[in-house]
Write a structure and sequence with these properties.
Layout: H1 10-16, E1 31-34, H2 53-57, E2 64-72, E3 77-78, E4 88-89, E5 96-97, H3 99-110, E6 115-121, H4 133-147, E7 167-171, H5 179-192, E8 199-202, H6 214-217, E9 225-229, H7 252-261, E10 269-275, H8 288-298, E11 304-310, H9 312-316, H10 321-329, E12 339-348, E13 351-361, E14 375-377, E15 393-397, E16 400-403
Parallel strand pairs: 1-11, 2-6, 6-7, 7-8, 8-9, 9-10, 10-11
Antiparallel strand pairs: 2-3, 4-5, 12-13, 14-16, 15-16
Amino acid sequence: MPSTTTLLSAASLLASIPTVFAGFSPSSTGNIAVYWGQNSYGQSSGSLEQQRLSTYCANSQFDIIPLAFLTTISNPALNFANSGNDCTAISGSNLFYCSELEADIAECQSTYGKTILLSIGGATYTEGGFSSESDAVAAANNIWSIFGPYSSSSSAPRPFGKSVIDGFDFDFETTVSNMPAFGNQLRSLMDADTSKKWLLTAAPQCPYPDAADGPMLAGTVSFDIVWVQFYNNYCGLNAFTTGSTTQNNFNFETWDNWAKTSSLNPNVKVMLGIPANTGAAGSGYESGSTLADIIAYCKSFSSFGGVMMWDMTQLYANSGFLSQVVSDLGNAAASVPATSTATTLTTVVGKPTSTISTTASATATGSGGVAQWGQCGGDGYTGPTVCASPYTCVYSSEWWSQCQ
């Protein structure tokens, strides 16, 4: 990994960038997204403190950078941790203008071919969405005027000046109301503008359906990418069973099935969201051969589009990790059993016995069944439905049944 103080000429760097790394590629399984903006490694000085955006864009090993975060929507406000220190307040708003970001976004896009997104939400987002669909649409129009295409006739505040991001990312951690209307309006505005290729992405947590983004992912909003957070949950990286062709709790297959059967965009890509360091994003960090096996397994699914990491400072503090991920993405996919559609009679405690049509691997229940606390049913769920002894599948809601 290059030092944050290393300066490379644009010409020599561009010559070294492989085509697959020139921004997001919908046909590639090697895309890498890394969040920037929160200085989560926590250094207050030195090379491991969060640096300006352009410092990282010179690295050709990743393609997409979501800027984290727009922390409020109705009365927009940004939080970029220490990088906000070099910005100035915009009168009449909660926003600030960042001259460095205006320059860096343009440089990252034009010189280094990076896809730059603005991530909305984050752990501190507390608005809970919108009180009505009309409020959601109005908010989307306002966000578009602030961060969408630049117009000299607009009076909207412009934190990034004349620079224009490549789209928006939704990273909501709790339930949000009327969000499909917000997402659809942003999608509509992006689709109507032909000045560039716009992207709409989401970062759901791995339990399916996601508590926050579920209504948007249920065939109501068209996303280009979902990078699922496979950490801090029972279905994360640490639930992966190495050497097994079937998985119980690690549920990338469920998200692949969502992409094929429920996504409004049939070409949506699903990316594997991972922590970039042992202390990043709570629990669930994996490295070495285990991570290589996980990536090889995920590559066996046709929706797989690459890896997302949290976050930039954690990544740069973990020497060699990025190169490992790049190498793993270049390896062959693992072999998995063929899937077949079957009609299964499933008994779920608390819910009347019903006939459920499910797509699951032929050996899904051949290794003892779903472990305690694992998912065993729910609308859209396609995994194994038989619990390991002595556990029973207990109904919680139409979306969720669990082995207890």
